[in-house]
Every structure is written in C-alpha cells, then in structure tokens.
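Section handout 9: paired folding examples.
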Amino acid sequence: MNICIVGVGAIGGFLGARLATKQNVNVNALARGKSLEALNKNGWLLEQNGVRIQRPCVAVESASELGVQDIIVIALKTPALAQVLPTLAPLINENTIIISAMNGIPWWFFKDLEAQTHRPFQSVNPEGSNSQAITYENIIGLVVHASATRTEPGLIQHKAGNKLVIGEPDGGKSARVQMLTNLLTDVGFDCHYSENIRSAIWYKLWGNMTMNPVSAITGATVDHILQDPLVRKYCSAVMSEAAVLGEKIGCHIAATPESRHKETEKLGAFKTSMLQDVENESAIELDSILGIIYELTQRLEIESPNIESLFGLTRLFATTKGLYGKAQK
C-alpha cells in the first residue's frame, strides 16, 4: 500500500509516522524546504510516550515524482489548499482514497448547499477551485482529537490525545471506511467509525471557533480564557449562535456551551493552533474556523452578532499583523 501525506506539519507528521509503523505500507510525503530535507535524511520521526519512532520516508517536492497512491492524507493549512490541491493529480486515480484531516470546515463540507445556491463558499472553496481539483467521490472525512507540535523540521512531539473519527462525507457505512478504521487502529490510534462525519466535524469546530480566535487576539492559553467569566460568557454566546446554524444544516449539537467548556478545561493550559501560528508569524486558518461560519450566517440570512464581532475583530487583528488575506506572510 502506498500512502502520501500532503502537509507534514504537526498533525500530518503524527499521522505519517504512526502509519509508517505498519508492515507493507510505504508512507511518502509531499514537502518542500527544510521539511523535505529532514524527511529524506531522517525519515519519519515521532516522540510519543517517551519513545522515539523512526521510519523510512520518501519525500518529494512534486507529485509527479511519486505516481498514483492508494491513500492520500491532506493535512494542509487551509490557506495553502487552493495552490496545492490542483498539483495533486499525478497521485490520484478513481480508486485513490483522499482523507481530509484539517482544522475547521473542509472544502467539501457544503457541497449540497453550494449546488442548491449555485455559489461556492469563498472562505473554504474560492471560486469552486478546491472542489474542481479533488473529486468528491474520492474523499473521506477525518476528525483528529490530538495535540502535537513540530519541534523542528521533520520531528513531531505528541502532546495529548489519540482519538480519530472517520467517515463517508454523505454518511452511512462503507467497506473503504471500515478498512481505514482497521488500518488506523492497527497503528495505535483510538479510531472510531462515524456514520455522520459532518456532525463530528461540526462538533469539534463548535469549540475551536471560539478558543482559537480568542487565543490569537489575546495571547492567552485556553485555561486563562475560560477562567475569565466575561470571556467565557462571550464564547458561550458565540457557540449558542453556531448551534442554531448547526440545526439548519443537519448538524444537531446536544451539548451545551458550558458542558463543552468543561471538556476543554480538562486539557489544561495549552496553546491553540491559531495562537501558535501567531507566535510563529504564520498565516492563520481563520477562514476554515470562523470565516466559513460568518459566510454561512449570510447565506442562511441568520442574525449572529457575536459570530460577526469575533470574526471581525480576529480578521482585523490578523490583517494588521500581516497574517491574513493579501498581507499573509
């Protein structure tokens, strides 16, 4: 089996290194710069539970150097999608399974709504370019509930969490998702087969859509965010508006904002991915985490003042820092 990881940051590297422990599986990578160098020199490197895992890796800069893959894992940051997805054609045939493993809402999430309104969502699928590059039928959804960091190019350190949720974009059961569930379980993940992956994606976003942008603006870890009663109340208000949106798109959330906060508090003092990006002066993934939610409120004509204010403030902050839009570094 040939697997290619596209996006070898913390999560891509974590998935790649674990998958590479499976016998008779070649886990390749599409990379560039120092990551490309490190992967070809040292292979996959993962520090987990006090143990260092090292496995071979063939890393290339161009998809044409690898040829067709059985599985592709896309773990890119959303701002890179429009540039990278069209270059992946040499890796793909009609049988290739393409797993999206990214923060926020993936480009394929609102396929039906886009078709009904004849308009792509610009925040995650600009001009429909991402859905044109990747055939919907090849896609499998994946939600990652884990924390990892890339301490240096090619070296990933697992922090916490080991849970994956996987499923067909349209829901239901399939042989290919069962195969992937077995594969991911075999290499040490706590992998769950979901018959409604869209709801699983929406539920994870429900927490991230507040913690990520608030941490980016304030520089605070999530424990401090939730310890401030006014900020906690504001986050709850944003989430309540998002829960209404979820009902409209068939992603019901049974939990309350407060119960979700208590889940988050168990993680302790940690930096969100968006805060890490701000500290590293990297483009933030605002569009897939919050921009798409604002765009959805406009499409459905639902008043959501708290979502609007959070998006506006974060967008202004990131634009001023050169981390969003045309000014991205």
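Moving on to protein 2 of 2.
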Amino acid sequence: MSHSHFIRLVPALFVLLWSTGFIGAKYALPYIEPFYLLFIRMLLTLVVFTVLALVYRSRWPSLREGGQQAVTGFLVHACYLGGVFAAIKWQMPAGIAAIVVGLQPLLTSLIGWQWLGERLRTLQWSGLLMGLAGVVVILLNGQHSEVTVLRPEAVAALVVALFAISFGTLYQKRFGGKVDLLTGSIWQYLSTAVAMGLLAFLFEERHVEWNMTLLLSLGWLVFGLSISAILLLMFMIREGESARVASYFYLVPPVTSLEAWILFGEALSWIQVGAIAVTVFGVYLVLRPAAKAAELK
C-alpha cells in the first residue's frame, strides 16, 4: 500500500477504532471503577509508547514542547475521558452523553474560526449542522421512553468533557505540529496518568475483579484506542484543518450503532438508517472543499 493510499484510509480507520471505545468500556466497567480503569490504562499505554519511542529512536521534545503536550493530554484524555466516564458513573444515560459530546465538531469549528482564523464556507457550516442533526436523531431514536433525572454533577462533567476535547484539539493543532507523535504522546499520557491517579486514589476504593473479559477489554482500550486511534487522531490534527478533523467525530455514533447491531443484535430502525445517511452526507459537505482543493494540486 502506497503512502498516499494509507493517508486516505486514516480517517476511516480512526472512526472505526474510536467507535469501539464505548463497547470496550461497557465490557470493562462492571469489574472496575472508571478512574482506576483509566489510570491503569494510561500506565500500560505509557509503557508501550516508551518502548516504541526507544525502538524508533524518536526525537524527544524540549521541556516547553513537552509541557504543551502535557496540556493537550490533560484536555483530550484526562478531562474528556474522565468527564464522560464520571457522567456515566453518575447515572447519565450513554445516549444523552453522546448527544452532548456530539456538539464537539460544531464547537471546535466555532472556536477554531475565532482562535485560529479557520474559515468555513456556508456549505461546510450546513454540513456540520446536518451531521449534528443526524447524530441526535440516531441517539434519541435509540433511547427508552422512561423519564431520566439528570444529576447536576453529571451534566457538569459532560460540559467539561465537551469543552476540553474541543479546546484540546485546537491547542494541539496550534502548538503540537512539530512534535514527534510517539514522544509527544508520552507527555500526553503522563499528565493523564497523574490526573487519573489522583482521582482514583482520592475518590475510589480501587477494587478490581480480574477476569478474562476485563483483561481483553483493557487490552483493546490500550492498543486499539489509546495507541492506534490516538496516533491517528494526532496525525489528522497535524495534517488537516480542525473543522475537518472534528467532523469525523459525527461518524462515530452511526458506526457504533452499526457495531451494536452486528455484535449485540440491538435494534436499528429505518429512522436511524436514514439519520446515518444524513450524518454521512453532512460530513461529506464539510470535507468536499478540501477534497476539491487536493485534486487541483
């Protein structure tokens, strides 16, 4: 496979891997508390990245660059993952959590427009709104009808997660473009491990029921998500506009719905199928100008 073909496959690989995060967490969380799970996950990821960095003799960032990567890690990993996991722990339905976090592409585009001067055409704004509408329909159509009481702390945790990953994506775009992906990730996960360790040891009992399901889930969360998916995300942030990268997150709920249908037999209505098509078309509208520009080069 040529380098250009691989680059074209990166977004699809990222969406496929990222969409499995909720499934991995669903298997693991019955046997371990969320912050302690994230703490162990970060420690294991640090070991793998350190080995890879030594094997490939990656360039280590300066202290200033390392500090900037630590900020990215704190926002993209610690605040985002910690916020989502904490919200679910506080009885926030996963579907509603996904809707709130689903605002991320739109929020990232708005902040990038103001902060980085990234301008979107009217067609691209329409695509972002269309993608958001499709995600909301997909998730709401899969919700049960019972009344849900939303705890204030759960809502606050989700808002923190939403703004953290939006600002973190833009921060990495602005300050992390010249940092090696492997060594930069070490700094990111180091700050995340510290944050998750503090939360786990201060607020959790850290009881773990070790079994094969937990081990396999943890292995996938480390190698499939924290290593493979994050490297792809950092690569896309470095190579593309923030709005384009963020728009791919709209594809995660549709892909997750399809995976749940295939793996667990969860119902997938025709309304959801139609909403998936709307979401995909919305992302296409966001990406279309960049694709045309690439063809002209």
